[in-house]
């Protein structure tokens, strides 16, 4: 049942930032989380495994966000995808990508993630990710919240978003199938990652398997080394595979263990999502350089509305080169350095923390330098002690439409899921849990 409660009058007089900095109530109900994660009896191991091996995956509280910021995030993502559809943008992005990224079979790329920091003026895009993990975990987490006091009951009433998201996610994968296969029957999907049982977000693989099977699609989880390519088909345990949900971070399928999947993809024998083309067009961090250059966007024909929005939402980003070394080193305290094909904050560095040794490694690699946007903070209580943690926002989307916004709370330079009290946190949009179109 969807029960809407009216926010209290005082809410109009308080900001999301004030709630984040002034309210440290614990809202996570662990028993309810267990019910959400273990609806399939076969998943009874999930919550105990998380508590044991992933104690910092979920925070015990929520993050508040203003409706204005939520709407700006949605509009920014639409503008980015408008730009990504321009011939000039696509030509530049694909020109530097490997041959495998030139294949265009139709699918857009499922499970996109847009990461933002907040500052006083607007949400700031930090990076774009293909195969962004966590959406089903965050759905379970959102459903497991409880009000900390009567005054906050309005924020935790059941909402349509939580009820509809599973259908939305299945529809996304079905749309990917139809983009490549049309009305042909879709019977099976394989969720693929290296050593999937050892992955930090391995419980989510099980949640996706369960989701697909509830909708009548045969689903399994596999290491790519268990796949074989012969007779024009991709095989797993003696059965031909229709579709692969790709969680690999070998974005261009270059590693030897991934060659069966690569051959099946290149021949069009399997529907792969997300795929190498999606990474080249969307997640390569050199694309942030273009998105932060207004004159270049204008030359490609980007609309004035999209350019105006991106000018405020995308921090200036530059390629790290030997020619710019002295300039970037001098400006390093205002910069954040990221590898162009990085993921999960690996080998990413705040400039004010750089040593000369690390700087030499950055110069020898392929990095971009992005204007530093400090993250917002959230007050929490850990073992009776109040402390501030940083947080970023991840907007999960498909085809330019936001599906869910979640927060990741942490200490240190980057998100790490190692901070006591940190981890994923639901986002409550004032004056309600609503993600606007």
Keywords summarizing the entry:
disordered C terminus; alpha+beta; 437 residues; 15 helices; 2 domains; single chain
Can you tell me about this structure?
This protein is of the alpha+beta class and 437 residues long. The protein has helices spanning 16-22, 30-37, 46-53, 67-84, 87-95, 135-143, 160-181, 202-214, 259-266, 276-283, 287-291, 294-299, 304-313, 325-330, 356-364, and strands at residues 63-66, 112-118, 123-129, 188-192, 218-222, 227-230, 233-236, 239-240, 243-246, 271-273, 317-319, 335-339, 349-350, 367-371, 376-382, 385-398, 401-410, 423-430. Strands 1, 2, 3, 15, 16, 17 and 18 form a 7-stranded mixed sheet that branches. A 4-stranded parallel sheet has the order 5-4-9-10, covered by helices on one side.
Short recap of the structure:
The chain is of the alpha+beta class and 437 residues long.
Low-confidence stretches: 432-437
Separate helix tally: 15
Overall mean pLDDT: 90
The major β-sheet equals: 7 strands, mixed
- Report strand %: 15-25%
- Summing up helix and strand content along with how strands pair, one would put the structural category as alpha+beta
Shape: globular
Total strand segments: 18
Query: How many individual domains?
Result: 2
Helical content class: 25-40%
- First CA to last CA: what distance? 23 Å
